[in-house]
Structures are given as structure tokens and as C-alpha cells.
Design brief:
Blueprint: E1 3-5, E2 15-17, E3 20-24, E4 43-50, H1 63-73, E5 75-82, H2 85-114, H3 119-143, E6 145-149, E7 153-157, H4 161-164
Helix pairs in contact: 2-3
The structure holds zinc ion.
Length: 180
Amino acid sequence: MSIFASGIGSTATAYRDGKILVVPSGTSLPSICVKCGEPSGKSLIKTFRWHSPWLYLLILPGLLFYVIAALVVQKKARIDVPFCGSHRSWRTRMNMAGAVLLIGSLPTSFLLASLEVNGGVTALIAVAIAFFGLIVLAIVGSSFSPVYIDETCAKFKGAGEKFLSLLPRGAASPMVASKQ
Ligand SMILES: [Zn+2]
């Protein structure tokens, strides 16, 4: 397992490859919100995990195979992600709402049971609330998420056009800045 960290003395710069943000190991991102391009306050230090999508095939023989393999081969990248105040608080609010729904599904089912609501209906409501919580968490997770990580770079989707437009373009040669 490898860990990749941003911000350690290096001359590499982050660049865009179409809509994808490419962060070579050792790069710091500019202090601009990745979503809207406004000046960012404090960066969110986040560890992203990624593995090849092929690994999901292991869910077929068994979830446990997949979980073990994913833990072994997943790549991690620790990145300081710049967010403005409003995008930061959106993330916080959504994460809290998702967690409250997920955790709240259990007391809700107890409450409904105590009100002598039909068991099947209670279970259905509890599962629906938990599922909705997972969807909310997935929306936050996918709003800025890795599409590739290895020892040399991490690639993300979800960065805003205004942020990307401030970065050099390049796929093969990250050092070539061509403003169009
Ligand atoms: Zn923003």
C-alpha cells in the first residue's frame, strides 16, 4: 500500500487534462475553491482512496474477497483540497444530514414499532431512510472524487471550470502551459 501526499517540496504543478484535475505527487493546489474558483479559506485535508474498477468484479464471488483485495491494492492520496466557505459548509451540512439519516433510521424504526406500526412498513421506512442517507453521502463523495491514483499522481473529477481554467493544460507534458 502506498500513500501519496501533496505539498512536499517539488517543482511539479497541478494541471488539467480536459475536465480532469491531475495532481502530481508533491504538488500543492492554488488557494482557490476547486468547485467555484472563489478564493478559498482553509483547505480541507483529505485522504482519497482509489482502486481499479475491475476489482468490483470480485464482489461476484463474495463481498469479503472484494473488501480484502480493495484494502490491499487501494492507492491513497492525501491532498489539501481548497474549498471556499460556502462549498465547505455545503459539504459539512450534507455529510451531517447523511449521517443523521443513516444513524436515525434505527431509532425511527424503534419509534414506529412502539407506535405499533406494522413491522413490514416499519422495516421499509427504516431501510428507505438509511438508503436516502447513503445517497446524500454519495452525492458529497462524488462531487469531488478520484478517478485514478498511483505513486506519481492523483486524478480527480468534479473540479469546476473556473478552477481548471487557471491551470496549465497537458496530458503528456504537464510542464507545458498553453492558455487558450
Ligand atoms: Zn466554492
